[in-house]
Write a structure and sequence with these properties.
49% helix; 254 residues; globular; 9 helices; Glutaredoxin; 5 strands; alpha+beta; 5-stranded mixed beta sheet
């Protein structure tokens, strides 16, 4: 499906939902002075993040930083994820791509899904679990309790056959993960003024998500802003998409 209808609808709903989102400030937000953090740059792990570092693809110290605030249960976030993954490969080490948790209160499984991704991250599978939960969103978004946990564990085992599933289950309730999710969310609310998901910032400038009518158009908007910031930094612009041809070639051979 070419039209980005689901994503646009989801974004619009959540933009209105931003009025409700602010009431969902996580508990830790009342005691942390968020003014000490620059939300447009990579925030290193510390006491308030549960000692969990930012999740970054690309070059962590790049002069161009792409920040995404996303909800794992958000249909729009799931729809755009494949395009973001392509961009991370196309721009490689010229851009730091950062993911931050932003679970919306109206999504019953969003926070649990964030915990699952962070738990997988303890074993080095953060990005694989993130993409897997998005691509399998319909299989877990209405589950609850132990059934939901079992599904997350099943998906983790699929991406990490050598991973420790029991550790994954135990880590789902780790207090450091709770801190990390709280920190990401409150940083988005207080510093980046996020009102809905997905929200994208490139060197502090927001990308106009709502006006994109197709997935490709959204990617073009993001790419245009990335190239603008690369040019300002005196770096090479334009993404290298040669890998797409290689992947298509491998698929056809199969």
């Amino acid at each position: 499906m070419n039209k980005f209808t689901i994503a646009v609808v989801a974004v619009l709903i959540l933009l209105f939902g931003g009025l409700v989102v602010s009431s969902f400030l996580q508990k830790s937000g009342d005691v942390i002075d968020y003014s000490q953090y620059d939300a447009n740059k990579i925030v290193h792990g510390g006491e308030y993040t549960g000692d969990i570092d930012e999740h970054v693809r690309g070059k962590a110290d790049s002069e161009v930083v792409f920040i995404e605030y996303a909800d794992l249960q958000c249909p729009g976030c799931a729809a755009v994820m494949p395009r973001i993954s392509v961009l991370t490969k196309a721009y490689g080490d010229r851009v730091a791509f950062v993911f931050r948790n932003f679970p919306i209160s109206g999504h019953q499984n969003a926070r649990a899904a964030s915990s699952a991704v962070e738990s997988a991250g303890f074993q080095g599978y953060f990005w694989q679990m993130l993409e897997t939960l998005y691509s399998n969103q319909s299989s877990w978004n209405v589950l609850s309790g132990s059934t939901r946990t079992d599904k997350f564990a099943e998906l983790f085992q699929e991406i990490a056959p050598e991973g420790d599933v029991e550790k994954f289950r135990k880590d789902l309730t780790d207090k450091s993960i709770e801190k990390k999710i709280n920190f990401d969310y409150n940083l988005g609310i207080k510093n980046s003024k996020v009102t809905g998901t997905p929200s994208f910032f490139i060197n502090g400038e927001a990308v106009d998500v709502a006006s994109a009518e197709t997935q490709d158009e959204l990617r073009e908007k993001i790419e245009e802003k990335i190239n603008e910031k690369l040019k300002e930094a005196g770096l090479e612009t334009g993404g290298n998409y040669d890998f797409l041809e290689e992947e298509e070639s491998e698929t056809s051979e199969e």
